[in-house]
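Q: I'm building a small set of examples for a reading group on sequence design. Run inverse folding on the following structure and report the sequence directly after it, with nothing in between.
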């Protein structure tokens, strides 16, 4: 497939990634990728950048080396009422916002609490993508999540890093297969995220593509293939 954007990448600013913004941009240009999103971990992730980093995005060129650059964040969900670790004042200025559960930022609870938190997060108009909703440690009512994504016009992420054999999340394959089947059934769009922490992983969707092929997932529901479709979500 000819991808137009990778919606989930990290640079040195996230604290446990290994390339600069410019190195990542050059790599995107080298592989013919027209757009890339930089979604740094928000402040509650240990070692990540502080709020001033996100408030100063305006100094960065939106295009470089022929690549359009989207500057945003991967916000951390910090409680089961859907609170995030960046306020709306910061989020509203970003090009793209992912919201995710991360073990260092919130302890797993119950399926009811996990699902309720994501539904509450979806009420935030500044959040565009629910990141990697595929971890057995944060068990979900997947059908409820997919229906809410449809109703609230949010994207669900198919995260390639989750699916790697050495990936950080348990049960991702089975959970993602269930999510994809439900997204097909309810006509819900997804975003493919490499979750790249190193330049070589930009637009690496190898494992995600295996699942898309397995369930015969329609291209028309993948925003990475249609920038107009993506823009209808991130405005």
């Amino acid at each position: 497939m000819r991808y137009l954007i990778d919606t989930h990448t990290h640079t040195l600013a996230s604290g446990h990634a290994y390339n600069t913004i410019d190195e990542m941009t050059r790599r995107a240009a080298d592989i013919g990728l027209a757009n890339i999103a930089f979604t740094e971990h928000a402040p509650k992730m240990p070692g990540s950048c502080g709020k001033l980093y996100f408030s100063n995005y305006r100094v960065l060129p939106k295009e470089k080396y022929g690549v359009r650059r989207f500057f945003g964040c991967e916000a951390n969900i910090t409680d089961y009422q859907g609170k995030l670790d960046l306020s709306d004042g910061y989020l509203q200025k970003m090009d793209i916002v992912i919201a995710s559960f991360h073990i260092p930022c919130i302890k797993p609870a119950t399926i009811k609490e996990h699902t309720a938190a994501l539904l509450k997060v979806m009420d935030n108009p500044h959040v565009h993508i629910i990141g990697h909703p595929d971890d057995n440690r944060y068990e979900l009512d997947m059908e409820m999540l997919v229906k809410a994504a449809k109703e609230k016009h949010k994207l669900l992420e198919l995260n390639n890093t989750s699916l790697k054999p050495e990936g950080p999340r348990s049960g991702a394959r089975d959970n993602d297969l269930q999510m994809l089947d439900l997204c097909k059934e309810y006509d819900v769009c997804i975003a493919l995220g490499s979750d790249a922490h190193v330049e070589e992983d930009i637009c690496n969707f190898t494992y995600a593509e295996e699942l898309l092929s397995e369930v015969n997932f329609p291209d028309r529901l993948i925003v990475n293939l249609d920038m107009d479709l993506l823009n209808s979500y991130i405005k």
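The beta strands are 5-6, 35-41, 63-64, 67-76, 97-100, 129-130, 155-159, 190-193.
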